[in-house]
Design goal:
about 45% helix, extended, 12 strands, alpha+beta, six-stranded antiparallel beta sheet, 12 helices, about 15% strand
Length: about 375
Amino acid sequence: MSAPVRIPADVDMPDRLIGPLTARQVAILAVTGLVVYTGWSLTRALVPVPVFLALGISLGAGAAVLALGQREGISLDRMLLAAIRQHMAPRHRLAAPAHPAPAWLSAATTGGDPRSVAGETPTFAAELRLPAEAVTDTGVIDLGADGLALVAVASTVNFALRTPTEQQALVASFAHYLHSLTAPVQIVIRTHRLDLSAQINELREQAGRVAHPALHTAALEHAEFLAHLSEQSELLRRQVLLVFREDLHTAGSPTELGGPSPWAMLGSVMGRRSAATNDERGGGRARRAAEVRLIRRLGDAIELLTPAGIMVTALDAGQASAVLAAACNPDTLLGPSAGLASASEVITSPNGWQHNYAAAPDHASDDDWNYHEEDDEATEAGWAQ
């Protein structure tokens, strides 16, 4: 009879290669030691030993801190690489393609400096590229070659007010759902600002239609209370989301130990690279199959979490777009809406006139920017009337 094997709770913990050191830590320390030894071999006839020891100890201590140090579960070498990438990346990201500015605008901003090159795109700005490419009409998020994703909102349950028997039943129901998972599921708990202006305005409008004076007074007092609460404190709202994700290709057959075989892992990597090509050749069959798997997984979540009192509801296209917009700009005071204009859409006024400051296509010249003075004249005439 074989002895039981203890599995750590943190399944994402990296394997230890030498003692408590992982492969990444061993590589950093080994490369640092090789550099120090090479430097000593090349400069031992020129640099005194105390000076080289001071430099070598400083370099070794820095490498040890970089390899062994962590902050909030992230190693310092990863944080250093992320800082370097962030420093070298452009400071501004544009949702629309960065078109070159016309010559007259470049001359105006540079003060007519002849050394400035007209029509150049600023080097500090770059096009914003998000993992999500589009949101379909059914609410499925298109991740391009990485597959598809589906976002659902889950209700909450007051666990503390339940009896011990009910708490055990809730834990068992949730554990049953976790044990049934065959693909990763992300549980996102997001907190965003709560705007009560709509409720306050509705209370004030409906108060005048109430016949009873006491109800009229109560509605106005409640509206004033909500307004005072919004002014005195920052109201927050918590939302629990379930994110299901599916690749465009199916996984290979598992091995005896339950994990993917090396050939399946190699096929997974190659499948990601050729997913877009296979999708075009297959006429969207891979995406349709991925959507079917997402819907089936959503149905399983609804069926298994309902006994625990957790209601799971899939987000439609507008709600999914609003969640993505809020995640990209969490500090905005404006609520996201599905009716927002796209990056390439020209915004028009309610009167129908078009303020054409939009850039021309790439093949057009700098003088082809769609700006018409007659539009401004018509606008001024309309305001005068």
